Structure formats: structure tokens, C-alpha cells
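Narrative progress, year one. The postdoctoral researcher (J.K.) led the effort to move from monomer predictions toward full complexes, under supervision of the PI. The following entry was the first complex the group processed end to end, covering 1153 residues in total.
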Amino acid sequence: MLSATSLSCVRGERHLFDGLDLAVGPGEWLHVQGENGAGKTSLLRILSSLSPPAAGEILWRGQPIKTLGEDYRREMLFLGHHGAVKEELTPLENLTLAAQLDGTSLSEADAMKALARFGLRGREDLPVRFLSAGQKRRVLLARLAVRQATLWILDEPFTALDVKAVDMLSGLIVEHVTGGGIAILTSHQSILLPNGKVLVL
Amino acid sequence: MLSATSLSCVRGERHLFDGLDLAVGPGEWLHVQGENGAGKTSLLRILSSLSPPAAGEILWRGQPIKTLGEDYRREMLFLGHHGAVKEELTPLENLTLAAQLDGTSLSEADAMKALARFGLRGREDLPVRFLSAGQKRRVLLARLAVRQATLWILDEPFTALDVKAVDMLSGLIVEHVTGGGIAILTSHQSILLPNGKVLVL
Amino acid sequence: MSAVFAIIRRDLLLAMRRKSEVLTALFFFIIVVSLFPLGIGPEPALLRKIAPGILWVAALLATMLGLARLFAPDHADGTLEQMVLSPTPLGLLIAGKIAAHWITTGLPLVLLAPVLGIQFDLDSGAQGILVVSLLLGTPLLSLIGAIGAALTLGLRGGGVLLSLLVLPLYVPTLIFGAGAVEAYISGTGAGGHLSLLAALLVLGGFFAPWATTAALRIALE
Amino acid sequence: MSAVFAIIRRDLLLAMRRKSEVLTALFFFIIVVSLFPLGIGPEPALLRKIAPGILWVAALLATMLGLARLFAPDHADGTLEQMVLSPTPLGLLIAGKIAAHWITTGLPLVLLAPVLGIQFDLDSGAQGILVVSLLLGTPLLSLIGAIGAALTLGLRGGGVLLSLLVLPLYVPTLIFGAGAVEAYISGTGAGGHLSLLAALLVLGGFFAPWATTAALRIALE
Amino acid sequence: MNWGSPAEFFAMGGYGLYVWGSFGVCALLMIAEPILVGKRRTSILRSLRRERIAETLDTQ
Amino acid sequence: MSNKIVNWFKYASPQSFYPVAGKMIPWFWVLAAIFGVTGLWISFFVAPTDATQGEGYRIIFIHVPAAWMSMFIYVVMATWAGLGLALNTRLSGMMAQALAPTGAIMAFLSLWTGAFWGKPMWGAWWVWDARLTSALILFFLYIGFIALQAAIDDARRADKAGAILALVGVVNVPIIYFSVKWWNTLHQGASVSINKAPAMATTMLWGMLIMALAFWMYSIAVALTRVRAIILEREAHTEWVKELSEVKQ
Ligand code: HEM
Ligand SMILES: Nc1ncnc2c1ncn2[C@@H]1O[C@H](COP(=O)(O)OP(=O)(O)OP(=O)(O)O)[C@@H](O)[C@H]1O
Ligand SMILES: Nc1ncnc2c1ncn2[C@@H]1O[C@H](COP(=O)(O)OP(=O)(O)OP(=O)(O)O)[C@@H](O)[C@H]1O
Ligand SMILES: [Mg+2]
Ligand SMILES: [Mg+2]
């Protein structure tokens, strides 16, 4: 259960939003919409505790995330505009090392399975810099399949993906949400998934 | 009139495509489609003379682009994944300097008009690094409005744009094509514009 | 804790993958050291006199060159964000990254220094002191450098700004490091210098990761 | 031709926007020069002897540090692609970029060198020769450096690889540059060294932009 | 009183260049700094006033 | 007790500090002028000619105050920076930022006047003496602080990053000072060093102290003026700034 009360965000002298309230419970997902520059990315970074809000508070299971710290971060997964994917490493190495950073470990077989699921079979050992734009995104999204987290915060996850990959990712999100997870995402396209809430900035 | 005969492209040991023929005439546009990693970006870079094809030839108005050199480049505009936009400069500076690099000059009033058209009014003097993902793309696209070129080669121009911006860009492309221009673009969404050809990789 | 080793392993793997990186830091060291006889002239007595200073300054510059790339690639591709959001405390991860930086840039210098010392006609005792002083000093350079790298992260012209911030802070390390070798050569004994260097290392080992972490959090806000 | 001035203007504008960039290259020069006495010791006679070598090596390193950023930002954000695709011949644009690089890094060094010469107690005649040698030498450093920057563009660990490529090519410049000042001090006259430096500059001015252009085309393919 | 004449005062016993070089630069900086700070203040005040006027025009 | 804390925080807000600073500034200028004129009068007309250095020694009357201020301001700056990090008050960062240029100028003046003193006394503009070297490094630290803040556009981030640098620097300044001192004494190379002030005549001492007070008042006055400008720049879009009489006119 993630909730926020009277959040506000200021960039330069521009107030992107003020007094924003939101609440997303288990089994629900939130679609953050808005024009270019409305403040979607800024909101997601605030919700993930990367940057502090100008005002307001964010609660996770009723407790402020500032005091929760690590306990919040362990249950949360944030994927932003940037890949967080090392161009020199192969998809396989990227995935296993990301898991180790999270303090878990991932067997090679599991990693291979996740990559195959995202259509990267045969590219497991090719350094990421040789991959196409969409394939790079897929490596990133494969983390969704292997990391156990209750709350997903995804910034434009559908960018650069082809139709097949969009379906695959939608499936993954539905699975996560119906299993009691929470997802917050931005996208300029409309997404037809059950149990969605919409927030327009 | 751009045509290519029996193009092929090899990356590593992977043949992305072989014996590809295409021809696009004035007043037409070409939608290059294909899965992630199919070779769309690679094809566009070959067509724009950035990288050489493994085999085959590309003709512009019947002459090979290799021998045309500058004459081809003057009539062609390529916008890739990267912004070609300087993060430290303001949108206004970016636009005027890009024009000067092309050997033309652009009055401040014209530049302001182009930026306003792309919804960047009020952000003309804000360094680009403060802009949102979509606003950065808009700065790039504003070049379309100011640079006179017959052939547009655009790699995923709709990425990160909101609905309004997508409409605006579509309008610009239609205008260009009906005025006798040529456009080649990639996109994972379907585009409903008149006079389109489709190439599936 | 395993996350720390994971990050060291990852950074070493990346260094190997970029192949040239480790080797070229070394070559930079060699070339800078070799430039001086070219710029100054070949008199052996003069060269022997300035050898400890030049070797140490070159080691310092070689370490410093790699600093800009300590956090920048991880920042550019978003890995740093993920590290901040990781359940493992950021300080530990940062300590791991600093350790990896030392292994890839400091350690090779320590190993190579004796060979270069021969070029300047240092005797084996002086060579030994040189190696020990570098062994104590180069980790300190990595530690202090990390603070500067974190402070300048993502800033335009960061590389040069970084050296501006870091070089003044390197002064004591340089003085005690080069001083140890010179003291040995002049017969006053290097013990004092080396123990001061060790004390500084302990101090740096405590505070630098902390300051670096704070600076990184600010850079990412 | 106007495109060349446009690119010089643009690069100077960017340098101003990044504010610190020009100043910090300068301060890097100052600090590196100041490090040597700290490593070597404060004896004025010894320092006076090695001063030309140190000043020249520091100038060389200061120029070199900025090289990695000569093409890299333009490469990363796609501007270089646009330059290759521009109707203006690439060679001209590149020459413009090299000129801008010299104005922002080489020229300030030339202007500052006399002040640092004072710290090493050089007399005014030696100062004059130092300035002239730097005035001839630093554009050469920018020209040669541009080739290296283009060759290492986009390679991992490019920064250090770059110095590996470029430093050996800098050796003649260093020898003639520092040699000119030393020759003056020792009374043999700096004329020969300086005219050799001038000859190298003419040679470099002809070939370097061409080689850089070729290297850039390869890097972008 | 140490000085017989103004000329003597300015000569500073042969150290004129050094003494006046020091005091001169010191005075120069200590005059320039407040002026620059004052400029900074007036420029921010000017832009604040301009904004105010723009705002009142907007609301009219 | 709690009353006092409330008061303290009241003045720690830019809004209430702005007018207070405005009222204090003229007084500091007046004090600076009084001490400056007195000090200069003592320096040139009261203090006798030095036995060994002739009239050249009069540089001491600005050299030493500048050197003192350069060190003192650094400590004050670091204190403000530390307060800013600990208490998260906006004013602290502004104060640190306002002090840095003045400190850098003082450091530069100590170098410049020292060089102009060294030339006649030692025959060289510069020697690698311990005190000179550490003064030079202090100057670099100031420049680093200013350059870092100039390179960051977000004011809050600039404050925090500058604070960390200032704190790291303040830990290092004594280490640097002693290491440089030791380096120099071990080498025993410098043919000259600053000789301890030759049994300074009391008038000289008084002149120096009064000049130091003048420098002090000057620094406070300039720093306060600068901090007021910084407050206006940073708080430009708050209501209270728009309501200021100097903005309204
Ligand atoms: C560039 C050259 C110089 C620099 C950077 C410099 C720096 C300093 C500094 C930092 C101090 C304050 C130290 C303290 O209070 O402990 C100082 C004090 C002083 N300096 Fe210099 N100095 C320079 C040249 C000279 C010269 C040439 C002389 C005289 C021949 C001189 C005479 C003094 C004296 C008498 C003091 C006061 C000492 C005391 O209060 O204990 N300085 N200088
Ligand atoms: N210093 C600043 N001054 C003024 N405006 C700023 C400043 N920094 C950022 N902004 C504005 O803040 C907004 C940031 O928006 P954000 O990146 O959150 O948008 P977004 O909703 O993710 O947009 P997109 O759909 O394009 O990704 C932009 O409108 C940008 O112009
Ligand atoms: N060295 C290599 N070895 C094997 N395959 C390679 C190598 N380099 C590139 N590739 C493959 O070449 C293809 C490049 O595709 P390209 O970037 O043109 O795709 P795209 O159609 O633009 O895809 P997207 O829709 O994701 O942008 C990818 O499938 C990539 O995996
Ligand atoms: Mg966004
Ligand atoms: Mg693509």
C-alpha cells in the first residue's frame, strides 16, 4: 500500500504539481499520464525516494519512506529512462550482477530463462552495445522477471519495444498485479489492463 | 527519388538483411517496420550514408550517393536515436547553431516560431538538460521545421512524444510529403498517413 | 557483504572487458616518467636527485586520470541510481568501488614502480621504500579521489574540475610519499614518513567512503 | 567558411557555458607545476634547472587532459553524425574545432606561463623564450592531440588510451620546446629549436586536420 | 612623522615599487569587490522590478 | 531556553536575516573606514623605519592581516557549511557562498603582498617556503570551492556539495600545513625563510592589529552585502521579496 499526501514538486521556479494525493493498494496499478514535461518522471523519482519532494509525505504500509529507508528499497523496484545496463557486459552478466547488487543471487539457468522469455535467446553472450534499441530495453525488463519486489515503479517501460514485446510486458504486469503486487507506470499510449487507476498530471 | 538495389547488412556474423530493394519517390513516404533487432536502425544509417552497406548500392536521383557526397547530404536530413542536441545550450541556441552548421542561417524570430510550434514556448532560454524526455525530442524535431531538405530519414521520431506532439509531427510529415518531399521512418506504432509504403524487415 | 564483493568483481570484470584501461594507466605512468629525462636533460646525478619526486608525481597523475571514470559511467547508464535504491547500504557499495579502483589503477603502479626506479638508478633499498610508500599512498589517493569524483559527478567539464579539487588534497600524501624515499636516500630514515602515511590512510579509510556517499546522494537528487 | 566560424563560436559558447572549463585547465597547469617542488624539494638552484622541463611537461599534460572532451560530447549526443552529414566539408569543421580547442586550453597556458616562471625564478629573457616556445608549441599539441582524440573516439577507456597514443607523438614538441628555453639559459641560443618548432607547426597544420577527419569517419561508420 | 616631503613619502626609501605595488593592489581589490557586489545587487533588483511590472501588466 | 532556540531559528531564515543584515552593513563599513584610516595612519606616519628592512617592511601592515583573514574566513565558511548540512537551514549555504570570494581575495592578497615583500628582502618573488606553499594551497582550496559551486546550477545541490568540500578541506588544512612545514624543514633547502618578526616594536604591533580589525570589518561588510544579493537571487519568487520596498519602487 503506497500513499502520498499533498506532494509538491518544484523545478527551477516552475511548480510541476502541488498538493497531489495518491494511493495505490495491492492488486492495483496506477497509470501516470500527462503531457511532455508535466512532471511524470519527476513524480516517479520522488516516489522511489531518489529525490525529495518540495513538500508532502509518502507512506509505505502506513510508514513514511524516509524513515523506512532500506526496508522500503528492498520491496521496491525502479526502472527509469536510463538502462542501468552496462554496454560492455553481456545480457547474462548484466542480469546476474544486478541480482548480486540487490543482495540476492541468481542461478545462470534462471537468468537464461528470463532472457529467453524476453526474446534474447542467442544474444546472451553478445555485449549489450551491439544490441538494438529495443533489445537493450528488453535486457532491462528481464530484471522484472527475476527480482522479487512488491512495488514496481516503471518510467515509460514500453518505449522502443515492438508489438510482441509490449504484449509480453503487459502480461508480466498483469501477473504481478493479480499476485498482489503494485505497479506505477507512465506511458503515452493507453494501456488496457485490468484494475488500473489513472492519474493525470 | 531514392532507390536501393540488393542491399545487404551484416553485423557480427548475423545477416540482418540481404538483397533488399526499395524505391521511394517524391510525395511518398516509407514506413520501415520490424521486430526489435530486425535491422531498421542499421538500414537507416546505411541509407543516410553514415555506414556503408555490405553489398548493394543506393541511388539518389539515379546517381550513387557515394559519388554524390555533399550534394546528397545537402538534400538529406537524418535524425537518429540521439538528440544531436547540446544539453548545455538552450533550445534557441541549439536550433540556430544547427542551422549555421548546415551552412544556412536562421533568424531568431524564425527559430522562436519553430520552437513555439513544438510547444516549447517559455522554455526557449532554459538549458536543454532541464527539459523532460519528450521536450528534448521536440527540440530535435523543431529542426524539421527549419531545415530545407527533400529527403527526411527519421529513426523512431515518435518516441517519448505525447499525443498532441505525435499529431503535430504527423501533420509536419504530411505537409512535407504532399509538398513533394520524401520521408523514411521507423516506428513500432502504426501510422495513418496518406501515400505510405511499408517495408517489413 | 556479498554485494560488496559482487561490486568489486563487477568492476574488475568491466576493467578487463575494456581491456586497455588497466594497461593504459600503467603506460601513462611510464610515459610521464620517461618524459622528464626528455624535458630536463640526461645528467644522471640530477635525475637521481629528482627521481622520487617525479615517480610520485607521475603515480599521482596516473591515479587521478582514472578518477573521472570512477562513477561517471555508472551515473550515465543509471546503475548508480540502482545502487542508491539497492537494499545494501550505499556506503558499502562505494567502499567496494573504491577498492576496485585501487586494484585496477593503484596496484599496477606499485608493482611497476621498481622497474622505473632502475631507469633513474635508484638502489635496491630506495626501491623498497618506494614500493612501500606507494603501497600505503595509492589507496589513500583512491580514497581522497573518490570524494572529488563524487562531488563533480555529472558536472560539465567535470574532469578538470575534479583535478582542481583533488590535487590540493593530495599534497600531504605526495610529501610523505616522496619524502620517505628522499629521507632514506639522504640517510635520515623513512620510518617517520611511512608511519604518517599509514596514519593518513587509516583516517582516509574511515572518512572518505562516508563523505563520498554523502556527495553521491546529493549528486543524484 | 561561415560554418567554420559558427563552429568556433559554438565551441567557445559551450566553453563559457561550462564556465569552469577554461579556468580549471589553467588551474590544473598551475597545480601540477606546484606539485613538483613538493615532490622534489625546495632548493632554488635545482628547481631553476628543471623549470623549463617541468613547465613544458605540465603544459603538455594540461592540453592533453582536455583532449578526451574534444569530440566525445559531440559524439555522444549525435552532433558529430550531423557534422559528417552536413554539406560543409568535414575537414573545415574539424579545423574549426581544433582552433577552438587551442583558444580555450592552449592560449591561456601561454599567457599564464610567465607567472609560473617567476615561481621558479626564471629571468625575463628565459621567460620570453618560454612564451614564444609555448606559442608555437601549444597549437601543435592541439593539432596532434585531435588525431588521437578522433582515433580513440567511442572506445572504452578512451581517455587513457588517448594519452598512450598521443604522448609519444608529443615528444618532439616537448624536446624542442623545453630545449629552446634550456638552450637560452645555457647561452647557446634558442633560434634553432624555435625554427624547428615552427616547421613542425606548419607541417601539423597541413596534415593533422586531414588525418583527424579520416579517423573520425572511421569511428562513426 | 617619518617623511620630509611627499616625494620622500612616495619613494618609500627606495622600496616604492614594492610598497605601493602591495598597497595599490590591495586598495584596488578592496574597491573593486564592493563595486562588483553592488552591481550584482542592482542587477538582481532590476530584474525583480521588471518582473513585477510584467506581472501587473499581466493581471490588468 | 526554548525561547532562545526559536529566536535563533528566526534569524536563520533568509527572510528575517535580510533586513537585519541591511541594518548592520553601514555600521561595519563605518568601522572598517575608521580602523582603516587609523591603521594606515599608524602604518605610514607613526610606525618608525625598520632597522634591517628600511621602509619595505611597511607591507606587513596589509600582508599579515590578509594572511590571517584568509585562514580565518576559511574556518568560518566551513562552520557555516557544516551548520547547513547538520540543520538544513538555507541561510548557512548562502553565507558560505558569500564568504568564499572574499576569502579567496584575502588569500590572493597575502600571496601578492608576500611576493612584493619577498622580492626586495630575499631577491626572489617566490621561494618554496613552507608558509608560502601552504598559503598557495589554501588559495587553491578556495578556488576549488568557488569553481565547484559555479559548476552546479541547482542552488541547493551547490550548497550541499560545497559544504562537503569545505568540511573535507577544513580537516585537511592543518594536515597540509604541517606536512608542508615538515617537508620544508627536512629538506633545509630554501636559502631563506620568513624570519620571525624582528622583535616587533609595539607601534608596529598596534598598527598591524588595527589593520587586522579593519580587514575584519571590511570582510563582514562585503560578505553581508553579498549574502543579501544572494538571498534576493535565490528567493526571487517568494512573496516577501516581491513585497520589499526596494523591489516595489
Ligand atoms: C608570497 C609570499 C608570502 C606568503 C604567501 C606569505 C604568507 C604568510 C602567511 C600565511 C602568514 C600568516 C602565518 C601565521 O600567522 O602563522 C604570514 C605572516 C607573516 N609573514 Fe608572510 N608570506 C609571504 C612572504 C613574506 C615575506 C617576504 C616576509 C618578510 C620578509 C613575510 C613576513 C611575514 C611576517 C613577519 C608575518 C607575521 C608572522 C607572525 O605573525 O607570526 N612574509 N605570511
Ligand atoms: N530549472 C528548471 N527551470 C524551469 N523548468 C524546469 C527546470 N528543470 C526542469 N524543468 C521543467 O520540469 C519539467 C520536468 O518534467 P519531467 O521530466 O518530470 O516530465 P515528464 O512528465 O516525465 O515528461 P516526458 O513525457 O517528456 O518524459 C519539464 O517541464 C522541465 O521543463
Ligand atoms: N557484433 C554483432 N554480432 C551479432 N549480432 C549483432 C552484432 N552487432 C549487432 N548485432 C545485431 O544487429 C541488430 C541491430 O539491429 P538494429 O539496431 O538495426 O535494430 P532495429 O531494427 O533498429 O531494432 P529496434 O527496434 O530495437 O531499434 C541487432 O539484432 C543486434 O543484436
Ligand atoms: Mg519523463
Ligand atoms: Mg533501432
